[in-house]
Amino acid sequence: MTTNTRTKRLAPLIILIISLALLIPGITQPLITLQASLSHQAMVETGQTLVEQQDMHPAMKSMASQFLGSLKVSGDSLVYDKTRSILGTAEDLWQFGYRFVAVLILLFSVVIPAIKSILLTLACLSSSSTRLLKANALLSKWSMSDVFAMGVIIALLAANAASSETAAVNFNAQLHSGFYWFVAYCLLSTVGSQLLIRKD
């Protein structure tokens, strides 16, 4: 490898090493929190609707409706609250018996992206990088890290969109640092890969 070639590969090498470093917190740090809360007032209103739909004595129905209608409650009860990282999610799926899904998450969102970054880093250091770049191109078809990141965003939007003031159960989702580390890894890995391919 000539000095000129080494200089050209220095920028992609630095970017790829940084992307590999970003992958570690990306898969270990908290990624997303999902919460579900039960609205007390909405539950009372749902109970009132159910009473009105029941086939029961009119006097009993009237008493039950009046009782429920007179109740004025406020607040919510948190019924579900989970914060998970990518590795934590895979671990939970494994423990609950969804082992195939856990393996798929680890394989396509962790193992293959890591191998790709390592191959590209080695390609920067190697005098003959053709085989390494071909192997990377083959693995790129199976890497799902960007798709996984988009899936997390869609889950966040769907959970927040499902919530309303009149709903009995409200959902809330919050992104954490792990998501941003992972997205940064995806972006830098792509940039480093494109720079390396163009240099060669």
Description:
The structure is a single chain. The protein has one domain. It is α+β, with helices and mostly antiparallel strands and 200 residues long. The protein starts with a helix and ends with a helix. The model has no long low-confidence stretch (mean pLDDT 76). The protein has helices at residues 3-28, 40-53, 58-70, 86-95, 99-125, 130-140, 145-161, 177-199; strands at residues 32-39, 76-84, 169-175. The protein is built from 8 helices and 3 strands; from the N terminus they run H-E-H-H-E-H-H-H-H-E-H. Strands 2-1-3 form a 3-stranded antiparallel beta sheet. Helix 4 (86-95) packs antiparallel against helix 5. This is Paraquat-inducible protein A. It comes from Endozoicomonas montiporae. Keywords: Membrane, Transmembrane, Transmembrane helix. It holds the Pfam family PqiA.
Topology at a glance:
Layout: H1 3-28, E1 32-39, H2 40-53, H3 58-70, E2 76-84, H4 86-95, H5 99-125, H6 130-140, H7 145-161, E3 169-175, H8 177-199
Antiparallel strand pairs: 1-2, 1-3
